[in-house]
Amino acid sequence: MTIVFMASTTSTEQVYKYRRADGTVVFSDLKPKVDNFQTLKFDCYACSTNSLVNWTKTPLHKKYQAIVNTAAQKYNVDSALISAVIHAESAFNPHAVSKVGAQGLMQLMPETANYLGVKNPFDVSENIHGGAHYLQKMLNKFNGDISLATAAYNSGPSTVARYKGIPPYKETKAYVKRVAILYKRYQML
Description:
Elements: E1 3-6, E2 15-19, E3 25-28, E4 37-41, H1 65-75, H2 79-90, H3 110-115, H4 124-141, H5 146-155, H6 157-163, H7 170-187
Parallel strand pairs: 1-3
Antiparallel strand pairs: 2-3, 2-4
């Protein structure tokens, strides 16, 4: 098996892996022109404390809106919140895989996906429905408090319960703040 590493001159947050027709495995920071690829390194889009993204102006997406709306209705979660979490977690990349193993648009951990009945976390519909279901559970657990629910989505419900609020982690604080900004913006679409 041949392995090829390709890199551009600019830095990105993602590394793509795909297999060429001849069997060569390619790792690149340039998005491949093929459909069958994996994103191997992808940190939560909104979690980086050093993010240079202007969260009040970053372009919003209507991608997958019909699925988001269906999941929102099914799980009684605001569609704008689901879109904000997708944007924060993966920047609407259905192939995203974090360095800790979270997968797909809403970055479901394998255990969470299994618990929610998500068989293929890279399937857009399954992932959005699983993430919306999990958001519903977090909103119910924290009495509708969106800040606590999104903190729990990021760092786990037991961590939020242990700290009796948003955990003192820089990543989680940044995430909650940025999801709130995105949520308000998605509500205006």
